[in-house]
Amino acid sequence: MSLPEPLAEIVDDFAAVGPQEKLQLLLEFSRELPDLPAELEQAAMEPVPECQSPLFLAVDAGDREHVRLHFSAPPEAPTTRGFASILHQGLDGQSAATILNVPGDFYSALGLAEAVSPLRLRGMSAMLARIKTHLR
């Protein structure tokens, strides 16, 4: 699987722990999702309705060599925030070409299928798909 180094490291971190630790790691990621920059309001962001909790994203591809990703999800949605944080930490600042080459099902390598519902995993897939749509 061809993943940018930051995302590959995250996948490796999840692969190294058991099912209960995977959930704990996902919660840690949820707490690391950065706040939106002051100039970006959630109302201007794209909703991702496939997510079970409210999630909004913005893709800034003005510099296609350093794409900026922004996510907004409420603190009471830790799974969704965790997925958004994984994508942010793994893909923010990467080139458009690199992001477009990330397999749509890369999240299966995280091994979260035992810990979270398929509907929640579909939300992560939808986030990546929407990012790629913006970049195309």
Provide the fold topology.
Elements: H1 5-15, H2 19-31, E1 46-47, E2 56-60, E3 68-72, H3 78-91, H4 96-100, H5 118-135
InterPro entries: Fe-S_metab-assoc_dom
Family: Belongs to the SufE family.
Pfam family, one: SufE
The biggest sheet, with number of strands, parallel, antiparallel or mixed sense and barrel status, is: 3 strands, antiparallel
Low-confidence blocks of residues: none
How many helices? 5
> What is the H/E order?
HHEEEHHH
Radius of gyration: 14 Å
The first-to-last residue Cα distance is 21 Å
* Oligomer kind: single chain
What's the short version?
Belongs to the SufE family. The protein has one domain (5-135): Sufe protein. Chain: A (Alpha-Beta Complex), CATH 3.90.1010.10.
Molecular structure report:
This protein has 136 residues and is mainly α. It has one domain (5-135): Sufe protein. Chain: A, CATH 3.90.1010.10. The protein has helices at residues 5-15, 19-31, 78-91, 96-100, 118-135, and strands at residues 46-47, 56-60, 68-72. Strands 1-2-3 form a three-stranded antiparallel beta sheet, with helices on one face. The longest helix has 18 residues, at 118-135. The mean pLDDT is 92.
